[in-house]
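Can anyone check this?
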Amino acid sequence: MSSIYFDNPLPVDEPSTVRCAAWSKSEETPLLAVAEGTSVRIFREEGEEEKEFRQQRVVPCTAMCWHPGGSLVLVAGWADGMVTFMGPGSNSQREDKEVHREAEILCVAFNPEGTRCVTTDFNGVVGVWKTDHKGMLTQMCHYRKNGAHDQVVFRTMTPSGEPNFENPPFFFGGEQGIIYLADDFGLCSERNKIASPLLKLEYFHQKDQVVAVTRAAILIQFSLDVEGKVVNETKQKLACGPSPEKFQGVWVGHGLLASSSQESIIHFWNLVDDESYIISLHSVDEQNSLSGDKVMSLDFNPRKRVLAAGTRGGKVVQWRCSTLSGTARSENNWQVLGISSTDCAVSKVAYGPGEGLLLKTERSNTIISEAQLNSAVQPPYIAVQTAPAQVLVYHVDKGTRHMVSPGFRVRGLSLGRNFMMVWSQKQIKVYELEEHTSAVSEVSSINREDAPVTSAALVILEVDKQIIDKMLAIASGAKIELLNIQGKGARHITFLEDIDGCPICLDVRGAWLAAVTNKRAIKIWNLAKNPDQKVKQACKFETKDKVPLGEIRSIRINRDGTKLALVVDQRLSSGGGSGGSSSSNNRLVRVPDSRLFIYDAETDSFLTYNTGKSRVPMSAAWDSYDSRLLSCEVMPQALCYSAEEQGASQTSPSSPTAFGLPRKPGKAEELEEPTHCLLTLFVGSSDRDSSDRILMQDSIPCADVEKGGSPRMPVAVIVPHVYFARQQGELGSLSTQNPETVNAEQESGTSISRTTLRDFVGLENVDESTRKALLNFSYHLAGGNTDEAYKSVKSVQSGGVWESLSKMCVKTGRLDIAQKCLGQMGHARAAGAVRACEEPEPEAQLAALAVQLEMIDEAEMLLTKCERWDLLNELYQACGAWDKALEIARKKDRVHLKPTHYAYAQHLEAIEEVQQALAHFEESGTYRTESPRLLCSLGLTDDLESYVERSDDSQLHRWYAQYLESKANLPRASEEYKKAQDWLSLCRVACFNKDLDAAQRICEDTQDQAACYHLARHLEADGRIQEAIHHFQMAGRIAHALRLAQEHNARDLMSLALASDPPNMAQAAKRFEQRGEPSKAVILYQKAGYQKRALELCFSARLFDALRKISDDLNADSDPEVLAKCAEFFMEHQQHDKAVHLLSMSKQYDKAVDLCIEHDVQITEEMAERMTPEKNSMDANHRADILQRMAKLCKKQGSFQLACKKLTQAGDKLKAMKALLQSGDTEKIIFFAGTARQPDIYVLAGNYLQSLDWHNDPDIMKNIIQFYSKAKAHDKLATFYDACAQVEIDEYRDYDKAWEALRESLKYLAKAVGAGAENNPNVQNLQHRIGLVERFASIRKLSKSDPSEMVSVCEQMVDMPDIDSAVRIGDIFAQLVEYYAETQNFAEAYRSVERMRQKGIILTPYVDYALLQTICQAVGQPVPPQDGPGGASGRGGAAPPAGGGEAEDEIEEEDDVDN
């Protein structure tokens, strides 16, 4: 059922005086408020005025807004500052003029929940009102700011990210370019100053972001932080064309803003991804009818996700967003809908909550509404609605047509026998169709003003084809009235409104009446019985878990009342609604379901059929005779509900028996692009397997191929035909893609056409029994039941029927049934072709059968489907369709492109189209032989010569030259050979003519080897040997040249031999050897690879220079015997390094090492590597012995690192470490110790590092500690820490650090001693030292706090006999001297100095020389000399070097020790 748009003009007095208009928010009761002149009028969607709510004042209304809740309350602002509150949902009308006084109202806006209303005026006053669900408004506060403010948006997201719909603050702004934030508590503050008048102010709820567009075409986005400061502000210059002040913008998705400024394009600004794209009016339709037009207004319907644009040329274009969730990210997501026309420029478009769209122009104000075209069938009549108030009645047998105009807008129609009923909400008319004359006469007209009609159906009860009753079933309110055709009668069927709901849709077939309610209740009655007592079935359209399956759009019941077809819509969240505004977040979009539902009354279950991706069922109809056959009109639509894509867990219904079970795929799923088509389905009985209940029979395109692809609307299926309605005149008025507006005032130009069902092609006029047999055959064939299908038609005797059945089998793809049909036909040739076809694809086998049945188009379609382009190419060739064959070969079958050209050329040759044949021989690549053959066979020698002359192909010229040569025309043949660059043939002809000079010139100029070889053979035969040798060389045939040189003792034999291959070199070398020229023979033997023979010749002829050259070219791959001989030779001649080199290559490692040891050959790293055997090449001990001997020699030669490497390879890492220590390479020693991971090696490395300047290098100290720790050498660590303590004392007099080091030493010494460490004398001695150091370190700190104690302790320590073991006595005296000098007691200081001298302590390491001078001057004594008497006894002087020579002691030389 296709759609039409019809217009409802608003009966306004002066359309040009309409200043503003506003739609209500209620989908159930859509109302439109229009401000005309000084009045406000309210209209219904049909254009009827609600006159009781009309407002009239002396000034015009300037702004309006409906309450967003369910209450129908309209707030209107007037030019004198008056604000009125009235409407169908308000108990009384209120007025208020205190807030705005005499200023013109500019804006009225509600928050999303409708609890607050904001009004603004021209003087800058902003009023805030409190509202309730009844529409009562109370003034709360108001603000006064400079300038006029006409933009208001509510901030519905808090800074913390929580939604606030109940009482949100709001932003407002206007001509001053200042954006304020205010609430209803009297708080208002400036938030952003843009300095340009605002054209658009919006709020992006999901990101808590303000979006503003200024008159300067600047798009500004910003947010507010917790303190209300502007953050994340961005500015972007918009491409707004020449009129940025005419900017129009509307949210069309999540963060997606559509805008236009009287341009021919619409801009889409994706604020989430910061991207943009455009849609142009030029690409809307193929006719480019909107070229040069401009967009004047925009609006978006979030419920249907449709964008409308009104143009300057009086057009209204609509696009549907094809993305249900998320944002439309490109122009490909917008599907073009219809183009409607008006009388002049459309200044405003506005979607209502229902199906209405307001179009405002200078001449009219119109609401256009989308409606479905209705149709009904009762053979032999078909009724089709062709316009809003027009119905066409068509007689299928006679082909007559009559137009019925009931005088009202038809909402539905129904046929029964020879009666027709049409109805609207307020009126019903019944017509009788005269059977003989097909005239239409009105029977009754029923007025339903008091009880509006929701749905209606005409019921004709028959017994034995005799009418026994005629009644009207009318759904109104919560009941179905059963009246006679005059509208009289009192019978009715009641519904429990709270439980079942109210009936919204009726359908009748025979005595069966079906109804569905607004609460998804389904009921079926047999009206031949008492309807109150005989409800055949009642259920809810929901799952067994009470989950609704959708909203039913239309129903159709079959002839025996067992099945009900349901076309369904789904209410789904739009995933962001209209984009930025929060009010759209909870909107539900009503989208068609891509599934067709079947209610099975016998099993009380629901079946589904998925019509395909991006395709939705528009209507369904059962066949008038067969209760199994169902037709479904399918339209392509990107925005639709798909259970597979949405996820079955959300709304996927289940039923007691079968629902949504998989079925066999049909053509509907195989179509790559969705198209407008009619699906014919078989709905099986309940005794079938549930997976095969709904079977696809065929898919019939609705495009009329005979009329240039113009769209048609399917209106009826009456076996064997499908009937279509097509609008005449305007092509595409009933568009498969876009429903077009049909003007109700025009006379219908609709024509009715029919198409034969696929299974009845050629069988349109069969009798009733054959028709039933064919239907059964088709039914079983669709279900895959081959045996039952064959049984259905087995009794048919007509050959024509069997031929039609075989053709039907080709179309349905049933090759097995087709073979049986061929047997009944006796078509042996076709049966043989099918058996002979060995192609793997079933379609290819069917195509072979189709060709035999002369179904060329079907064969073409089948081969295209299975992509057997090679077979399709052959089919085109067999049919003589050479253009198609060539095209398919070029595009799909490139491998057979040349054979196709060749076959076509042969065809052209047969019909003597010479020039075209030559062209296709060239395309096939066979022209070099086929074109000359063709011309010669026809005796066209002149044409052959001109053909060759025009060609640049060398092979063609060569063929023609050979042809001329066969005719003894040698001069012309030479010319053609030259053109073909066939130098061999050209030289051959010259030699044949005894013109050797010309032949030589050819060879010299072209350097062609084949020509040179031919000439050389000719010269050899002519006895010109030297020239023959030269040309053999030019030809690259050195063997021939060498052969001639040897036979004739030519001078250049050596050069020829060097340029030849090894066998010829060896032969030439043998000849030189025989001639007594061994040096040349050696060179040739060597180059030929005969090194052994070359060496023997060198030894015998004592060619030492040649021998050395040969040895330089030897490598590890050379013959070991050759290597050994050379090594022996070099040893005899005292060239030991070369001998070692050769011995290593020959793997005589012992001999090589012994030779190096015996003659002290300097071993390099490269030589050492060559003398190192492979790991698995010999016994491990033998290999280790070789490496150790090599390492010993390396140590002797001072190559300690190389010795370390060889010892490591030998597996003796300890010796390797000792060798490496002798190299003194600290970095490598540290690295080797770290990789060796052996305690002994760690100790050696630590000992070595102690011999370095470790106290000035923290890294060395760290490595010492690390190595000793890894080796667990606690005694070494204790000694090292003791040395560290001594360094701190001797170098820095830092007894605190020395004390810490001694404590570490004690810790590791205790670990080294183990159990009973406390009784160990070394431990006790160290503890005693630690006590002395700690005591001295502590008294040094007493010089300030307790000097007497410090002096006393120092005096005691001086007299201790073992004090030097821990504390330097010089440091004790120095402490006393410094203290006495600091306290000006110079006498005691001098006495302490003298005591130091008496003990033989050198003064300078302890007492500063300047301090000593001061003391001596103070007591009148000379300064003592710098040098003391000898070294200090004990520890008074410099300490011995720390670390000792442990490393040197442990590195043992291994000169002659052989481990």
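Reply from J.R.: I decoded it. The mean pLDDT is 79.
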